[in-house]
Write a structure and sequence with these properties.
- By secondary structure, the chain is an alpha/beta fold.
- The protein has 3 domains: 5-191, Nucleotidyltransferase, domain 5; 196-284, DNA polymerase, domain 1; 302-380, DNA polymerase, domain 1 (Orthogonal Bundle).
- 48% of the residues lie in helices and 11% in strands.
- The strands form 2 sheets. It has a 6-stranded mixed beta sheet with strand order 1-4-3-2-5-6, sandwiched between helices. A two-stranded antiparallel ribbon has the order 7-8.
- β2 and β3 form a beta hairpin.
- α5 (118-126) packs across α6, α8 packs across α12 (266-284) and α13 (302-322) crosses α15 (332-339).
Length: 381
């Protein structure tokens, strides 16, 4: 793999794009900042193939020719923890990149830790220890030092080495298809859209509200989200979640009553007071949008807890035998749902059902015998 190229001119970008047109896959990462904006500000795009390593400066040159390459559906894009990067591309062109392969999602299927960070996975698979010296770098500041460029390049250099190894192991074990649903989900635009009318659902305390209070929260959260998107500022800069909850509970009908709510800044009242009072008045005239219906979890008995322990032991044995991280198969919560009669579970679908789901059902139906022999748990039919 060659020395990293720093791309900051149209001519160099054009040459890079020409070299990438027919590659089957490329490793990709981004650097960005979001502290003072609603949307992330793209600071760098890093790309690597077996033959090329490039650091592209989107501040210095128009990256649309590169985006045309990245959006080519004949090129597989390799990420580690793709979601934040995909959100950036969604903001740039209204859709995420596709198709993708995410090493963080793939690794547990091969027995590596769940949700492993990039440095941890590189160390576990390649035996390389990466530095964290520039993890807090201001990537928007120019010029970047050689050390910063090297640090950014490492994020794709080793990703391009990880992918072939993980992909080959997955092929050998016939597990590539196991990952298709998760990778497909990462390419859905709906995952990255933030419709203002649904903004209230991200506020934790919303579930405790109902009636007029819920209606007010829904409409004020929609107003805040819309304005934050228009001004490209963090939503919390306009008004915090806890104050939206207070507005919903207290239902102020005048600017004076609004200004008397503890924590509401005078500047907010002066600038937005009339608009907020109008929004509250309109919300009081309408029923709230329905909440998502969430079934209240059943109380778990001691016997069910014990049975979950037994099923988890069975899962761990199967996972060890197949060299899969147990958390990729199921969770204790899902096992308790299975015990209590739920059947519309991931555990009973796709590869999980084939690997262990039916065996767990057999255990619940009394078809398995458990014995400890020479210090090991044996399961027989």
């Amino acid at each position: 793999m060659t020395h990293p190229q720093y791309i900051d001119t149209p001519e160099h970008l054009s040459a890079l794009c020409n070299s990438l047109k027919n590659v089957p896959w490329l490793a990709i990462d981004t650097e960005f900042q979001r502290e003072k904006t609603y949307r992330s500000i793209l600071a760098l795009i890093q790309i690597a193939t077996p033959d090329t390593v490039a650091i592209i400066d989107p501040i210095a040159c128009d990256i649309n020719p590169l985006l045309d390459i990245l959006y080519d559906k004949n090129i597989l894009k390799i990420f580690h923890a793709a979601r934040q990067d995909q959100e950036i591309f969604y903001d740039l062109r209204g859709e995420p990149l596709a198709p993708v392969f995410d090493t963080q999602i793939a690794a547990p299927i091969l027995g590596y830790p769940e949700q492993a960070g990039y440095a941890r996975l590189v160390n576990d698979v390649l035996g390389v220890q990466l530095t964290k010296a520039h993890s807090r770098t201001d990537w928007l500041r120019r010029p970047l030092s050689e050390e910063q460029i090297t640090y950014a390049a490492d994020d794709v250099i080793y990703l391009a080495k990880l992918y072939p190894l993980l992909a080959n192991q997955l092929k050998e074990k016939n597990r590539l298809d196991w990952l298709t649903p998760a990778f497909t989900d990462l390419c859905k635009p709906s995952l990255y859209a933030n419709p203002p009318e649904l903004a209230w659902k991200r506020i934790r305390a919303a579930k405790r509200l109902k009636g007029a209070s819920l209606s007010i929260l829904q409409k004020t959260a929609e107003w805040r989200e819309t304005l934050a998107q228009q001004k490209n500022i963090p939503r919390g800069w306009l008004i915090k979640d806890d104050l939206l909850i207070e507005l919903a509970k207290l239902k102020p009908t005048t600017v004076d009553s609004l200004s008397n709510i503890r924590g509401i800044p005078d500047k907010f009242t002066e600038k937005f007071g009339l608009a907020i009072i109008d929004i509250i008045a309109a919300a009081l005239e309408n029923k709230p949008a329905p909440k998502d219906i969430q079934k209240k979890p059943n109380k778990v008995s001691e016997k069910e807890e014990a049975l979950a322990d037994l099923l988890m032991a069975q899962v761990r044995l199967k996972a060890a035998d197949a060299n899969v991280n147990p958390s990729s198969i199921t969770s204790r919560k899902e096992l308790l749902q299975l015990i209590q009669g739920q059947r519309d579970l991931e555990l009973l679908s796709d590869w999980r059902n084939e690997m262990i789901g039916q065996d767990l059902m057999a255990t619940l139906n009394g078809l398995h015998t458990f014995q400890v022999v020479s210090g090991e748990l044996n399961i027989s039919t």
